[in-house]
Amino acid sequence: MKQRTILFLIADTGAGHRSAANAITGAIKLISQREQEAWQAQHAEQLVPSTVAGSASETGVPALEPPTYRIEIVDVFEEYSRFPLREAVKLYGPTIRYNPKLFGDVFHLSNQEGPVKAYQTIATPLILNGLMRLITSVQPDIIVSIHPLLNHVTIHALQELGLKIPFLTVVTDLITVHFTWFAPGANGYIVPTEQAKQLYMERGLDPKRLHMLGMPIDPKFTLPTDSKEELRKRFGLQEGLPTVLLVGGGDGAGGLQAAVKAISQARLPVQLMVVTGRNRRLYAQLLRTRSKFHVPAKIFGFVHNMPELMRASDIIVTKAGPGTICEALSCDLPIILSGYVPGQEEGNVKFVLANDVGVLALDPRTLVNELRKLIKPGSQILRQRLDNARKVSRARASFDIANCILSYLPDLEAESIWHSRQWQRAQRRLSGRLRSAIRLRRRQGTRARKPVGGKTLLRNPVTRRFARTRDLSENGTDTPSTSILRRFIKIKGNGR
């Protein structure tokens, strides 16, 4: 039995990129499990022809035992980039939360070739060696990027190493696809929508490398769950009362607090389930004030049972995150968009409106009015949007993407590039410093990417000091560094 290694490159800017990687990983594991079970069942029945090694059986199951998969998901900026790039990436969460307009301005100004090249010039020296160290340590058979800012530098790293490892890009924006997503030189590009496909074609890239397969969502959304009634009992919800699910994405943005307040003050005949994500401050605040709400409400933090929450609900109110939108469609939920990140999520709003699966409600009055239309007994609008959701839903996209990725893996009989003369020659070209770092990384194994004794290996004292910023911030305590960053964002926003 052979093992294939798949390396996913992400950045935890919001929860969407890691969620997409986890969704594809889950699909790969299920595919592998089914392949192993089918092979074992056929082998036990002795249906595999023994005369020709590697031939296919009558049922189409390969004679060679299917490979197993080792999967690594790595936040490259957090674990392998240098100061100040690593710290700059952390501005994403505070910026979209406190000054989304600033983020939108940066997005639009950078969405063209000139600024992208400038970014590459500045960022590449701060991440290239770390990325090369990661690749040579993990020794993947295929690399998959699920973040736009990692595509150009990964292709550069593979060129520097002189290795021909398949490299794929999985785009996780529905329509507003940033220029950095389509870096020339990748072996394949996986996009979710027809609009994203058109942007790719406009770049003049090879159409044979394009795959339009949908947005990866958790394979759990393809599995059956308990009935709506049973789920509501499990969550302690009232029978016969419409349930509205409010979600703000991984960072708890999107006007969650304002939406809850508006629904409560309107005294709508509904009950709420509110998911605050990683926004611990909002979670604590809603718990403290829940007794004053005029509607029943359940408050959740970051959750791992979103399929159950969605299937227990009748309507979803969410910011325009692409993953949440596609998850809601797979659960036949009409969508009310309460907010969006300018630039990055503008196209997601267009997707929802163009397919008539939801509306945009940026102010409390519109939100309340749209909810009234949907909870009205026998609502024609509700029925129409449910029908449209079923038409555009692609719940099995993760499996399609997983199969596409697996199709780029080398044949089982092929020699691994990491045992080839090509890699032996490439090692001789590496600098002594990089070779030393690789040897250290191998001695420590995968634990080299995790804190050991309060410190992180392969990180200098300056970046270790700044690393404490994120740890304290996640515990709800602002360090001087995060306080300064938050103050800058607010001042910048007021100045505009």
TrEMBL record:
Gene Ontology MF terms: hexosyltransferase activity
UniProt-listed GO biological process terms: glycolipid biosynthetic process
Pfam families per record: Glyco_tran_28_C, MGDG_synth
Subcellular location: Membrane
GO annotations of cellular component type: membrane
Entries under InterPro entries matching the protein: Diacylglyc_glucosyltr_N, Glyco_trans_28_C, Glycosyltransf_28_UgtP
Domain Diacylglycerol glucosyltransferase N-terminal positions: 68-217
Parts of the chain that traverse the membrane: none
Keywords: Glycosyltransferase, Transferase
Residue ranges occupied by any Glycosyl transferase family 28 C-terminal domain in the UniProt entry: 243-380
Chief localisation class: membrane
Family: Belongs to the glycosyltransferase 28 family.
Protein name listed in UniProt: Galactosyldiacylglycerol synthase
Species name: Ktedonospora formicarum
